[in-house]
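[09:14] KT: can someone run the structure on this one? pasting the chain below
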Amino acid sequence: MNLTYKRATIEDIDILTETRIEVLRAVNKLSGDIDMSEVKKQSYDYYEKALCDGTHIAYLIFDENCFVGTGGVSFFK
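[09:31] RB: done, structure tokens below
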């Protein structure tokens, strides 16, 4: 295993959004037919703002060129 960590940028919004939807489906035991389009849009909008203003920091983890995970911190005042 050769893990590399990359700080997420605005260019990574799609992978962050898709991963968030995948996690929400798994944690809440939601089937694939549940419409998550509004959650996806809100998540995308959140990441778009928060990654730029520094209120969210995320890292993407890769094994070679294969995405294997992510983690992040949201900062609130």
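[09:33] KT: thanks! The CA atoms of residues 15 and 60 lie 9 Å apart.
[09:34] RB: yep, looked fine to me
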